Amino acid sequence: MKKVLPFLSIILNISSIAQQQTFDIVSYTMPNGWNKQVTESTIQFSKEDATKGTYCMITLFKSVSGTANSKENFELTWTSVVKEMVTVSTPPEMQPPAAENGWEVQSGYAPFEAEGNKGIALLVTSTGFEKMVNILILTNTDVYEKEISNFLESIELKKQTPVASKPPADVVKKPVATTAAKKDGFAFTTTNFDDGWTSTVQEDWVEVKKGNIKVLIHYPNKSADAYNSVLMDGLKNAWNILVAPRYSSASNFEFKPISGWQSIDFAEADMVEKSTGKTVHVVLFKMHYSNGSGKYLEFITLNKNAFEQEFGAYHQESYGWEKLEKMANYNKFAVAATDLKGKWTSNFSGLTQYVNANTGASAGADTHASNQIFEFTSGSTYKWSIAVATGFVGNIKFQAAKSNGKFSMPDNWRINFSDLEGKPKKYNAYFSCIKGARVLWLQDTGYGDYTGFGKSE
Q1: 3-class SS at 5?
Q2: Residue 21: which residues within 8 A CB-CB, separation 6 or more?
Q3: If you ran DSSP here, which 8-state letter would residue 164 be given?
Q4: Alpha helices in 225-333 (DSSP H)
Q5: Contact status, residue 416 vs residue 340, Cβ threshold 8 Å
Q6: CA 63 – CA 30 distance, rounded (Å)
Q7: pLDDT tens digits, 210-225
Q8: 327 DSSP assignment
Q9: What is the pLDDT of residues 17-72, one digit of tens each?
Q10: 128 strand-pairing partners
Q11: Cα–Cα distances in angstroms (integers) from residue 292 to residues 203, 216, 220, 316, in the given order
Q12: What DSSP letter does each residue of 341-389 carry, written as one string?
């Protein structure tokens, strides 16, 4: 066998090159005159010369989940793929890694033998964005060196959505899903929580998934959320707007709202999905909090038993619904510095009316209103201002403060400001989603509550 593999010195080109074909997240140029065979998880190119007994086979594998360590991914693939296909007599001889556009490439080769045939096995593993892409080349000659080189040089890996860093424990428990996230112009559209749930941004809801369980956190909907003095009628209206249109048929309907200081909407049925034709169990739930912050949550499980095992059975008390309620908290997504550019505003107002306990006559009113603005500009700079009006009606006092400076982000869940009210401050940060927009939540680490900011045009 002739000496092969001088092309191993090639660094994979994963920048922008015109491509002819695409497989999964990989674009490539197919070698001319080679045979092509496609399966669900691979695409294979092969060429041989039966007269001379020479051959070459290139297998491109569909991307799979991987670790952040490119060497570990290479070694895992070498053991689970290469060694399963052929017998290699020595450990792989590694080539210098290459890195570009967030991908790191590890490559190595070793002699192999398979059914009396000898040759060289070359594995190329690209790691990035919690994924890995593998290319395996088996050949017994250097005759196809140029064609192999051209193929490797043609490889382009699609740019992936960045993976959010691990958030502080007080932001989420720990922030990749089967449903593609909606691209909405923000850097992060997926959050992975350390309890196994994964959230993705969708057009009309945030989808939260673990195993065969799916929860839809529906965005505020004026028609579905409209107040109805008859609790049952309000629940049926929300079901018809949010749930029914996506299913072709239903059975075992039960609408069981619960009246109380904070009433509860609860409805369930066995439904047939229009998109898949599968029968699933669907529960629509909402806790009507006194402050109006309740969200409609849609739980989709394989059957009623699966729902009750995960979230508990229905009961008529207005308490004990914590397992369902907490799912609304998975509407959390990381923040990139590029997402912040522009003006973010938070407005608050409140009024307390006092009444004379003896006469019932009005004893005046105490009011509070505030407007806080963060404006993020280029060069990691910001401007901040706050205006507050507070006091009894007729004797309201006004206060204001402002500052500007530099901000930095130690990770995608925290923002440090160089000057707010005369001193540096640290904030926890995350986004929640509403239809067509996001809300920026900031928490001064010296206080307990988050403040929500909407982006101003």
Answers
A1: coil
A2: 27, 28, 29, 30
A3: P
A4: 231-242, 304-311, 322-325
A5: no
A6: 18
A7: 999 999 999 999 999 9
A8: G
A9: 444 688 888 889 988 889 998 887 889 999 988 888 889 999 999 887 767 788 88
A10: 131
A11: 23, 19, 11, 22
A12: -EEEEEEEEEEEEEE-TTT--EEEEEEEEEEEEEEEETTTEEEEEEEEE
Cα-Cα-Cα-Cα dihedral sign, residues 299, 305, 311, 312: positive
pLDDT in tens, 129-153: 878 899 999 999 888 888 998 888 8
User: Distance of CA 417 to CAs 31, 165, 176, 374, 420, Å?
Assistant: 54, 20, 32, 11, 7
Rounded to two decimals, the pTM is 0.61
In 5-83, DSSP assigns E strands to 21-23, 26-28, 35-38, 42-49, 54-61, 64-65
Look up residue 374 and give its amino acid.
Answer: F
DSSP string, 411-436: ETTEEEEEEETTEEEEEEEEEEEETT
Q: Which residue has the tokens 């028609």?
A: 223
Query: Which residues does residue 353 pair with via DSSP β-bridges, in sequence order?
Result: 365
Q: Identity (one letter) of the amino acid at 376?
A: F
Q: Which two tokens stand for residue 7?
A: 């092309």
Cite the DSSP H helix spans in 8-117: 70-77, 83-85
Hey, what are 276's tokens? 């898949």
Residues in the chain: 457
118-156: b (≥16 Cβ within 10 Å) or e: ebbbbbbbbbbbebbbbbbbbbbbbbbbebbeebbbbbb
